[in-house]
Structures are given as structure tokens and as C-alpha cells.
Amino acid sequence: MKIDLEKYLRIKRQELDIEEPDETLLWEGIRKEIIAKKKSSAFNFWRVAAIFLAIFTLSYIIYNETGREKEREFSLSQINESLGDREKAYQQTVILKMQDANIQGLSGTPDNDIIPVLINELNVLDTIYQDAINDLKQHGYMEQIVEIIFDTYEKRIRILEKIIMETQKIEKYEKDIQEVSL
């Protein structure tokens, strides 16, 4: 191998011992290097622009979604603190009555025809409540709309109490039947 290299160097010595370098070849190499740097800096610019656009888009989406959530969470306390307190009291009562009524557990009780009717009434009241809230958002504070909202709460509570009484009647009836059967 060493012999082949020496032989090659002897043959190509004149070509390798050029005193002046080839300027066109040298400048062509420099030009290619500059173009490559420009391309990479342009690529970096677009990369930074894409990242900025992605962050801006994500921020916009998050801002809009939280804004919509705040819009959905409208309550009377935004109008007046005393109205908000009254609404909270009604909401807590409704929540307690819903837990007592256990409406999810009642969906499969075919023994009583009145419970599905009462549940349907609750759904109608929910629709009336949503319409009243939407009217408040559109038209601002109106005493009649606020009274409709409180009326829906009161009716919900009464309906839930009826559901609780009906379920207690059913449970008592089933208990009495079991005692008689024994």
C-alpha cells in the first residue's frame, strides 16, 4: 500500500504542486457556503415564525374557551349580590333535594307512572330557566326575568319533594308487601 501511494504521488506531483490555487474553484466554494448559510437563516426565520403563530393560535383558542365558560357560568350574583345569595340558597336546596330524590336510580321504576311525568316537568323547568338566563344576558336586568328564575327554583324544589314522597310511598308499599308475604 505504501508503494502505491508513493507511486501515485510521483505521478501526480506536478498537478499537486501548483503554486497558484484555482480562484474560480475557491470562490465557488465560498459562494456555496454563503448560500447555504442564507438558506439556513431563512429556514430559522420560518421556524421562529411558525412557533410564534402556533403560540398565538393556542393562546387565542384558550382565551376564547375560557371566555365561553365564563359566559356559561352566568349567575344572578353578577347583577346584584343579594340576588346571588338568594340564588345560591336555592341552588343548594335543589342539590340536596336531587340527592335525596336519587333521580338516576328512578329511571328504571315502571311501578309508578307519576315519576316520569315529574322528571319531564323538571326538564321543562330547565328549559325555562335557560331561556330566562339568556334573556337576562341579552336584555340586562329585568325584575320579571329574575322572578321567573326564582319561580323555576321553587317549582323544582316542589317537584323534587313530590318525587321524594312518591319514592317513599313505593318503598313503604314494597316493605308492606314483603311483611305480608312473610
What tags apply to this protein structure?
182 residues; 2 domains; mainly alpha
Describe this structure in words.
- It is built from 6 helices and no strands.
- It is mainly alpha-helical and 182 residues long.
- The chain folds into 2 domains: 10-69; 77-181.
- Helix 3 packs parallel to helix 6 and helix 5 (114-139) packs antiparallel against helix 6 (143-181).
- The longest helix has 50 residues, at 23-72.
- It is elongated.
Layout of secondary structure:
Blueprint: H1 2-16, H2 23-72, H3 81-101, H4 103-106, H5 114-139, H6 143-181
Strand content: under 5%
* Spans of at least 5 consecutive residues with low confidence: none
What's the N-to-C terminus distance?
110 Å
Average residue-wise pLDDT: 77
Total domains, how many? 2
Largest sheet: none
Shape: elongated
Instruction: Give helix % range.
Output: over 70%
Structural class: mainly alpha
Number of helices: 6
Rg calc: 40 Å
Secondary-structure element pattern, one letter each: HHHHHH
DSSP E strands, number:
0
How is this structure best summarized?
With 182 residues, the protein is an all-alpha fold. Helices cover 85% and strands 0% of the residues.
